[in-house]
Amino acid sequence: MTKKTGTARPNLSAVAAHAGVSTATASKVVNGRPDVAEGTRERVETAITELGYRGPSRASAARTVELMVDVLNTTYATQILRGVVLAAEELSIDVVVGRVRHRSSRGVMESSAAWAQRIAAAEHIGAIVLTSGLGPDVYGSLARARIPIVVIDPLDFAQAGVVSVGSTNWLGGRSAAEHLVGLGHQHIGVIAGPAESISAVARLDGFLSYCRQKGVEVEPDLVRPIRFDHDQAVQVAEEWFRRPDPPTAIFAGSDAQAMGVLEAARRTGLLVPEDVSLVAYDDTPIASWANPPLTAVRQPLEEIGRRALLTVQQLHVGNPVDSHHIEIATTLVVRDSTAPPRTDLVRMTRS
To answer: Which PANTHER family does this one have (predicted)?
Structure first.
């Protein structure tokens, strides 16, 4: 294993010798060529990781940050991207966007070592990973490759030494509960985000904590962790709205979920907010475009993207960060989707 100083950086020939393959085969693995047997590829990737190999320096990539996402076709992701790009422009840094994990022509997901090596070989300043669960093997590979990385709203629990950026999710969830309980709602449903998401768990905990504090019991059957997904939210909300005692208010863990609740209300003949109040989370543009415009907990998504980019640059130049988890404050934006619960108890649904 090479030392950081005093020892030459391992070259491709050393990787090939360590893996017991030809230099040409090692080169194919480094460059992502598909015509390498999986067992051989794994040996080369292991050698790359163990030796700390990094590809030849490329000056053109020396001012580039890679933003890696699983899904980009959401307003949430585009707002984050906007913040990253605007901050990068100020620092004359280029931004490239890619998927978190590449697949081969045969559909095989690249290993964590290959993922880390691909980023290291590009000689980028660092990487920003958006709302993905990477796992300790990937974090370890990135750490060994000395790649600065910042994770925005990680789906898995933070690893030691990895910097993450997000919002004050617990307080955001609490502010949603404070608003609905303050309006007089006692029978509330929560469509939460995935159970493995740190941010979703924090939002739910903040919401339920305030309800307990005020003596409002949220039924376990009216708490449903699902993906941050429109269609799943439609199914859950429609099921609840067809109950003999549908909730008078719903807190949705994302704007996409809230739009699903609106669709479920339309299908079952309920009016928002006359029959059911609705609070969303994120406050992307679709929240204000909805009919009615949605009361929402606003995440400062552009600022989160901006802070992530600035933090990657800070790590790249060797400056320490004040905290390994950066939280930016949320705010509640009240619009037309919330109101006090009806007092006449006449809430008709279509059968």
So the answer is: LACI-RELATED TRANSCRIPTIONAL REPRESSOR, LACTOSE OPERON REPRESSOR
